[in-house]
Structures are given as C-alpha cells and as structure tokens.
Amino acid sequence: MYTSTTLFAFIGALAGIGSVSGHSAFFHPSMWGFNVTDKDYPYDNRPVAPLRDYTFQQWWFHNHLDHPPNPGDFFELPAGKPATAEIACNKGATSFFASSEGGDIREPNNPNNVCPNSESIAYHTHGIDDLEGCALAIAYKDDVNQVQPEDFTIFSVNQTCVWTRFTDFSVPAAMPPCPAGGCICSFFWIHSPKAGGEENYMNGFRCNVTGSTSTVPLAKPQVARRCGSDPENGKLQDVPGNCTYGAKQPFYWLQAERNNVFEGEHSPPVYNDRYNFLDGAQTDIFEGFYDSIPEPAPNAPLPVAKQVNSPSTETSPTASPSGSSSPQPTFLPSKACKPKKFPSSSAGLQRRSFEEESTGVLPRSWTAGRHKATVIFLHGLGQVNATWQMAFSKALTPYFPNVQWIFPQASEKRVSMNQGMLRPSWFDIWQLPPHPEEYDERGITESVSAIEDLILSQIHLGVDPRRIFLMGFSQGAALALMVSLTTLNELGGVISLSGWLPNAYRRHITASPSIPILWCHGTDDKEIPLPYGRNAMQFIDSLPGADASKTELKIYRGLQHTINDRELEDIAAFLHLQLQS
Ligand SMILES: *[C@@H]1O[C@H](CO)[C@@H](O)[C@H](O)[C@H]1NC(C)=O
Ligand SMILES: *[C@@H]1O[C@H](CO)[C@@H](O)[C@H](O)[C@H]1NC(C)=O
Ligand SMILES: *[C@@H]1O[C@H](CO)[C@@H](O)[C@H](O)[C@H]1NC(C)=O
Ligand SMILES: *[C@@H]1O[C@H](CO)[C@@H](O)[C@H](O)[C@H]1NC(C)=O
Ligand SMILES: *[C@@H]1O[C@H](CO)[C@@H](O)[C@H](O)[C@H]1NC(C)=O
C-alpha cells in the first residue's frame, strides 16, 4: 500500500488519533473530489490520501474527475498578490467543515493548526526545519479533459508549506487572464523523506486569474532538474548550470505510469531551491523572460534574463549564484542586431542636437579627454555592479581613458515589491511601475548621502566637480537625479537611463541647479513607462532658473526597460560634449 503500517502505528502511538488524521490536502469547494469520503471507493481515496504506485487514471486528479466542483466555484488567483489556501489533514479542520464527515474539528485557540489533536508527524513533518515545500500549478485550459500532465506550470511555491493551515501562495504579477471558462489548477506536495513513506499529493481545482494586466503567455513548462546543494546526500555545492530555468512542470513521481522524475525514495524531488523552485511567486515562467535558455548541464552557462530590470529579474536566479559564469546584460554591442536603426522619434522634443546620425563607430578623437574626470554609475534594483562594468567595458569606457568610472554597489535591503526579500537596492520600492507618491524616506536619504560622500571623495582627490558625472539605470537613475538636483556641488551632468523622479523628493528641489541632463527612455518600457520620463523632464524644465537648452529627452522606439547600442552612442556623445566644455 501507499504508506507503511509502521508509520500509522507511529502516528497512532503519538496522538491516539482516529481516522480523521494523517497526511494533508488542499481544501476548497473549487476542487475535484471536495466531498469524496473513505466510503466512495474500495480504497481510501479521500483528497488527503497520498498517491503512490498508481495507474495514471488512479493518480491523475486523484481519480476524482467524476466528482467535479459545482459550477461557479473557482479559487481566485489575484495577479501580483497572495492567494490564501487552506491545507489540512481533514476537511473538518478547514472553513469547509460543514460538509465533512466528522464536523468541525478546528482548534479554536490555534486556527492555523493543520491537523488538530495530532502531532506534526501526522502530516509528515518532524518540525519547521523539516519542510520541503508545496506548490500550485496552472494550465491555461478550461476543459479539464484537455489537460495533460505536461500542461501544468508551477506558478507559486511556499517552501514552509504544510506548516500552517492558512498558506499564502504569491501569484506572479504578470499572470495573463484565463480562458472564458477559467483555468485548471492543482496543488502538489512531496514531503520530507525523514517523515514517513515517500508519496505524492495532487488536488486539482478550478481557478481564475483576477486583476491581470498582462497578455504574455506562460512558456512551455520543462521538467525541473536537481541543482541545489544537498548536504544529506553529500552535495555541498549548488550547481546552477544544472537547474531548469523558466516554466517548470510539477513532479510526477513514484507512480506506475507517466512519471517525469525518477529519484530514489530517500532523496525525493522537492518544491524548493534544490530544484530551482524559489520561495514565492515564480516570476520567470513567461514567454520571452529569458533571451535564451542554454541546455542545462553541470557546466552549462546560465540563461540571460531579457529585461535588465524587469520586476522578475529581482528573483531571477541569474543574479544569485556567485562564481559561476557571469550573466551578461542583453545589450552587449556585439549582437547580430547591431545594424538596427532607431528612427529619430525624439526629433520633435530635441532642443539641442549632436551627432544625430550615428555611425556606430565613435570618433577616435574622443579618447583625447584633457582633464581628469569621473563618472559614477548607479545600477538598478536587484542588480550587480559588475554586470554594468562589463557591459560598459566594451562599449563605452574604452573611449574615455582619462575618465575614472566608479560602479558603487547597493547593499542588500528588504524590498517590499519582492515580498520583503533581500535584494541589492538603493531604497525600498513597492511596485513597478512605482507609484509616483511612494517614497522610502530613510532609504533615499541614506543613499543620497552615500553618493554625496562619493562625490566629495572625488573632489578631495582633486577632480573638478564640473567634471564629475552621475549616471544611473532605473532605480539608480532615480537616485542619480535626486542627488544631482539637490547637491550643493556644481556637477558636470547627469544621465538618467529609464529613470523617474519620486514626487515626494521634488519638494526638496527649489530651483534648477542648471545641470546638463540627458534622459534616455524606451517607448516600450513597462517597468518605468515613458510618461514618467516626460513628466520628470517637464518638472525640471519648469523649475525657477531652468535652462531648457541643457536638458534633453531621448526616446528610443521599441526599446523596453533596458538600453541599446544607439543609447550607448548617445551617452558617449553627451559625455564627450560635456567633457569638452
Ligand atoms: C459537497 O457537499 C455539500 C454538502 O452536502 C454540498 O452542499 C456541496 O454542493 C457538495 N459539493 C460538491 C462539489 O459536490
Ligand atoms: C507561506 O505561507 C505562510 C503562511 O501563510 C506565509 O506567512 C508566507 O509568507 C508564505 N510564503 C511565501 C513565500 O509566500
Ligand atoms: C475570471 O476573472 C476575470 C477577471 O476578474 C473575469 O472577468 C472572468 O469572468 C472570470 N472567469 C470566470 C470563469 O469566472
Ligand atoms: C543534474 O540534474 C539531473 C536531473 O535532475 C540530476 O539527476 C543530476 O544529479 C544533477 N547533477 C548535478 C551535478 O547536480
Ligand atoms: C562593485 O562593488 C564592490 C563592493 O560591493 C566593489 O568591491 C567592486 O570594486 C565594485 N566593482 C566595480 C567594477 O566597481
């Protein structure tokens, strides 16, 4: 049978429980088999019963396809927000106790108890440190009979599942809407091998994505591969190249048919970092998230996320593994798309023009910078300074040999937009696009003064402040602007790449510092849309003492939240011009 008699004896000995306890299931009226009891089948096929050694028909949807949910019952998945599921070892321990066999067994003093009157071993864990995570998967089909195992994509993981009855699953913000009849979802769980017989859990249910603002479909899900450290099996190192990146299928394991993983009983596949199922929303499951995904292998290069600072890049695994082959941003100039020309869509806005017709090759004379100068570049949220240093080392810095380039690195801060995860960040961000009024006063004040200190140290080294430039991308651009619009030093210029200027900071800006500003922005930027750039430039140009001839907004048609070769040339041209004056 699917579970060992010794385990049941153990559970019984621990807690003296009856048939109400053991295992765990997702409970919601939207599920198939919501009302199945131990009387409905010749074998225990309640939703909580584990699945092992079964035929496809027996394990798929728990063999509950003949027990559909009532029409109109959906489990709602609010895009960008958590969906709260109820997980319990018995329906009587959930809000849906009314239709359970034994009535309400919830524990009044601890509503989060997954299995009242039982030890945690009854739901297969020895304690909070022995949890291996569970997951929700989605298929973008509304007819359950059309859904195949290969159609399910894991979109959310909770690595501390099944510790609390109310378990939050973060829904990726970029989830597209479901078909007219909704979507088909499923709960999956495989517990720790230390806590009893190894088994699979699957509860299918009807779901629907709400509040969606995206139309990008999910990518085709692949089988998840083992790639994280596993000290208990003698693997002390992560092997990031071996990971499956992007959309991943659930594990189908230990059945008689249609398995997709074949790990041994005592090293089960798990919904956590060991299989690159990061805790929370799975943000990289969408088509086009990665430029390309190399074939996984222990020594394979890591994939490159397409948008340098998309919200999903924050949790992208490309940024985390250290010492492995470095991820490269997508705008490296050697690309095949080099000849692509962007029409000068910004013509109407230009107040000053230089080097409009780009040649793709920078004049040699530009290397002849006469004096010492410094460019301080501030990276975007979740980014690593080395990425930008590498990118510029090919396309930009060689043309300015007398300029010192400084790439400060933001420290790791809790980022609200990323569920409080620690990310390299100059200040807190709640959402992208940022709400114009959101403002992390403390973080911004600290980062502004850190950059001011950096400027001062350059001045102390003898650099003329008028030859010090601030440049930044996205969040780094916002910081570069805030510093340069309020600093008492007369700086050489500021370059904002896909940036914005928080409204709350604008109150500190009383007059135009008359600093040359180059603002570069793509028309297709979804993280920091172009109107943020226009609005900030209008504000700057309306300040007392503003000199519109010193500010320039460059717009790049078709460009998303990243930079391209044309932009690099414009940056070079701007720096060159300012350094000559
Ligand atoms: C489950 O049982 C309850 C109580 O009999 C009933 O109201 C409900 O419609 C049933 N749900 C399903 C999906 O069969
Ligand atoms: C997992 O669920 C718990 C309990 O609801 C919740 O506190 C936690 O934030 C969830 N974790 C994630 C990553 O969503
Ligand atoms: C799913 O949610 C969307 C957005 O709220 C709604 O328009 C649609 O009618 C829902 N679909 C179903 C089948 O309930
Ligand atoms: C790579 O992944 C495969 C498939 O999950 C696994 O069998 C293998 O052990 C992994 N190799 C390493 C070095 O982690
Ligand atoms: C990146 O930042 C680190 C400090 O966190 C620093 O040691 C390193 O020199 C910086 N890299 C570059 C290229 O400036």
TrEMBL record:
Highest taxon in the source lineage: Eukaryota
Enzyme class: hydrolase
Pfam families: Abhydrolase_2, LPMO_AA14
GO BP, one annotated term: fatty acid metabolic process
Any one GO CC term of the record: cytoplasm
Cofactor(s) listed: Cu(2+)
Endpoints of the signal sequence: 1-22
InterPro entries: AB_hydrolase_fold (IPR029058), LPMO_AA14 (IPR054497), LYPA1-2/EST-like (IPR050565), PLipase/COase/thioEstase (IPR003140)
Compartments it resides in: Secreted
Region (Disordered): 289-358
Keywords: Copper, Disulfide bond, Fatty acid metabolism, Glycoprotein, Hydrolase, Lipid metabolism, Metal-binding, Monooxygenase, Oxidoreductase, Secreted, Serine esterase, Signal
Bias kind Low complexity: ranges: 310-329
Limits of the Phospholipase/carboxylesterase/thioesterase domain: 369-577
Enzyme Commission no: 3.1.2.22
Classification via SUPFAM superfamilies: alpha/beta-Hydrolases
Record GO terms (molecular function): carboxylic ester hydrolase activity; metal ion binding; monooxygenase activity; palmitoyl-(protein) hydrolase activity
Coiled-coil annotated residue ranges, if any: none
Substrates-to-products reaction catalysed: S-hexadecanoyl-L-cysteinyl-[protein] + H2O = L-cysteinyl-[protein] + hexadecanoate + H(+)
UniProt similarity note: Belongs to the polysaccharide monooxygenase AA14 family.
Role of this protein: Hydrolyzes fatty acids from S-acylated cysteine residues in proteins with a strong preference for palmitoylated G-alpha proteins over other acyl substrates. Mediates the deacylation of G-alpha proteins such as GPA1 in vivo, but has weak or no activity toward palmitoylated Ras proteins. Has weak lysophospholipase activity in vitro; however such activity may not exist in vivo.
UniProt name for this protein: Acyl-protein thioesterase 1
Organism field: Candolleomyces aberdarensis
